[in-house]
Amino acid sequence: MKAKKFINNILKQIKTESICKSIDFEDGSWRKDIPSEPGWYFFKTNTPIKVLKSMSKPAGINHYNISAKISNKNYLLKNDILVITQSNNELFFVYNGETINLKARAREHYDGHDKTYCLALKQYDKLKNYDWQFHYLPVSNTGYQDHKVLRKSVEQGWRVNNGWPILSES
Q1: Cross-strand pairs, 133
Q2: Are 11 and 125 in contact (CB under 8 A)?
Q3: In this structure, which long-range contacts are made by residues 21-24, counting pairs with CB atoms below 8 Å and at least 24 apart in sequence?
Q4: How does the average pLDDT of the chain come out, rounded?
Q5: 93 CB burial (10 A radius; 0-12, 13-18, 19+)
Q6: What is the pTM assigned to this prediction?
Q7: Is 118 within 8 Å of 64 (Cβ atoms)?
Q8: To 5 degrees, how large is the angle CA 7–CA 91–CA 79?
Q9: Residue range 115-161, pLDDT digits in tens
Q10: What confidence tens digit (pLDDT) does each residue in 87-125 have?
């Protein structure tokens, strides 16, 4: 019971204290103030699912194939269970994760990186037509000491409480 209370406390902090950066596809300086420390991060967008489904295969070997990720979740989307979906043209969560270095992970998901799995958002011209946001909360802001188990538990707890982001690993 203590673990559940512990995780729920951090989830409340994520909901009320996470920091939001609007992604500028023309200028990567939106990442400059993101700390190089452990934490949790989330991507929100108003890009329609049908546009995400139409994305071409990425250039990088470890870059997420956005269209394939969504196709793998079609059975969940059809039944409207578990997966977070978009309502009208509103922003919705499409990805969440945990990392040892928030700044590096924001850069990898934005620019792409051949040695780590990432979204590589900048590679897709279509995405520039929509709003994208990077939300994050450093572990140090929670008052708890960092540990991989803590970060993973909170990442999964967030999904249990909010649904599964369509581009997150299943």
Answers
A1: 22, 44
A2: no
A3: 21/106, 21/133, 21/134, 21/135, 21/136, 22/131, 22/132, 22/133, 23/110, 23/121, 23/132, 23/133, 23/134
A4: 91
A5: buried
A6: 0.93
A7: yes
A8: 75
A9: 889 999 999 999 999 999 999 999 999 999 999 999 999 999 999 99
A10: 888 999 999 999 999 999 999 999 998 888 999 999 999
Integer Cα distance of 46 and 170 in angstroms: 22
Kind and range of the H or E run holding 160 = helix 148-162
Report the chain's terminal Cα–Cα distance, integer Å. 26
Give me the residue label for tokens 């103030």. Answer: 33
Beta pairing, strands 19-22 & 132-138: antiparallel
Rounded Cα–Cα distance for residues 92 and 146 (Å) = 28
How many residues in the chain? 170
The answer for residues whose C-beta is within 8 angstroms of residue 16's C-beta and 6 or more apart is: none
